[in-house]
Amino acid sequence: MSSDTATDAAPPAGATPAPEAPNPWAQRLRRFGYAGAGQRTARERLIAPFPAPRTRVWQAVGLTPAVADRLARWSGWAGPLLVALLAGALRFWHLGSPRAVIFDETYYAKDAWALLQHGYEGAWPDNANQLILGHPQRIPLGVDPSYVVHPPMGKWVIALGEWLFGLTPFGWRFSVAVLGTLAVFMLCRIGRRLLRSTALGCLAGGLMAVDGLQFVMSRTSLLDLIVMFWVLAAFGALLIDRDASRARLAAALPEDGRPDARAAAGTRLGWRPWRIAAGVLLGLACATKWNGAPYLAAFGIMAVLWDAGARRAAGAPHPFRAMLRRDASPAFLSLVPVALATYLASWSGWFATDNGYFRHWADGRGGTWSWIPAPLRSLWHYQHQVYDFNIHLTQPHTYQSNPWSWLVLGRPVSYFYESPKRGQSGCTAPGGCAREVLALGTPLLWWAACLALLFLLFRWALRRDWRAGAILCGVAAGYLPWFNYQERTIFLFYAVVFVPFLCLAVAMMVGAMLGPAGATERRRMWGAVGAGTLVLLIVWNFIYFFPVYTGMTIPMDAWRARMWLDTWI
């Protein structure tokens, strides 16, 4: 073989590929901010290290270097814990107020109690709310089944609080407040892992702690915040799985960290328990409300794309082919069948009883599918009826809104409203007062999130930043599906499911405002001023709207001052 022919031959397996020259298209994109991958080893691209904790702040307040180092190392857990404690204090403050059945609590609080007593949702008389809140309390739960349009998992969560504290406003809101608080803690940890910064992770959690929509939903016995909790936990489990699988792939590379085509394409990533945990969590989301299903699809696609990216970084010449051969089937089995089994398990109470709605619908029925056990066919019929109801729900409602208006908070939902006169409910204003629980996101946070999403689109499209893509995936899966139901009666509070990802988007934008590590002191100073101002304004905005998040009695003029848009009334 001649030397010329040898030069054109394919490189041997395991050889380090030569760096490619930028193509003309990439050179054009650089004019608009595009940046290719940096010059790093394959192992460095696979494993992004956490930066060493800084001790400068602790030493500045007079602590010794040893103590400062210990506190800095603990900050990864202590910071999120402090943010969560603040969030919990806010959410449990006067949790039983207002002492009323507000908005759709009239369905879920009573359904949860029925599950606790019977294992299925039972029928209630029309005056049940008055009897439950009366003195003495009466609980007029019957034994007849009730037709419900949401799966039971979220109501079982609500039932736990009722089991502990009874069928009272505090009891039916307790479990949701716990999950709302834990979600803040999780978001701090997830943000830390995603952005590789304890400060930015705590900022993301802190922003959600002061978001009005998440706050109100954490204090109301509805299902949507429970869906959000499961979805966020699944996202965190997939992040942990991503880091673990990439570390396993990096360990298979040569010691010098160079790419290796054989290891990249052939390494089996083995047992991945965190991906199975994500399947269980996504199943719980679907078993709470069906708007968890788009996350199962979106996160499944995101997970296998992460695998393809990992194999590309390790040196696989055909990363998608390697992903399809090694990762796609295990990913599907870890997510979809696990989620389906979890969903079916959530109906255990319905299966175990004889009085559940449609429980014996398939008994004695023949037909093509008669070989399937009758309880499963009955459940399938029930699910079909629920699906038909949900897609044809077009009855007008005062507070319905189109998803086009959600990000700018066009039409929030009033869960509770009273206008006490002077001398009633603590009102001292001559012109009367107002009490309202308004499911409204903190306006400055949401409007800043609109800018942050545009920034993330830039980072994802032109900087190939996978973190931006992951956050956008979380927003898109909870937001875009609702555009398919333009005629359906839908509400702004459905958006609480993707609030954590809006907070991550703002935190990532704030990180960019602070500037890169190599920026000048002047650049970082002005970045800190801008970022600090934004965060302080968001916190002030939450404090300003706090009375209309919690149903406090305020003068009517003060209430009107908080109705910034006519559509909020």
TrEMBL record:
Residues 1-18 have a biased composition (Low complexity). Residues 376-568 form the Protein O-mannosyl-transferase C-terminal four TM domain. It is found in: Cell membrane; Endomembrane system. InterPro entries: ArnT-like_N, PMT-like, PMT_4TMC. Its main location: membrane. Residues 1-23 are annotated as: Disordered. The chain crosses the membrane at residues 74-93, 170-187, 194-216, 222-240, 331-352, 444-462, 469-485, 491-514, 526-546. It comes from the Bacteria. Its EC number is 2.4.1.-. Keywords: Cell membrane, Glycosyltransferase, Membrane, Transferase, Transmembrane, Transmembrane helix. Residues 83-304 form the ArnT-like N-terminal domain. The keyword Magnesium does not apply. Pathway: Protein modification; protein glycosylation. It is a multi-pass membrane protein. Belongs to the glycosyltransferase 39 family. Protein O-mannosyltransferase that catalyzes the transfer of a single mannose residue from a polyprenol phospho-mannosyl lipidic donor to the hydroxyl group of selected serine and threonine residues in acceptor proteins. This is Polyprenol-phosphate-mannose--protein mannosyltransferase. It comes from Streptantibioticus ferralitis.
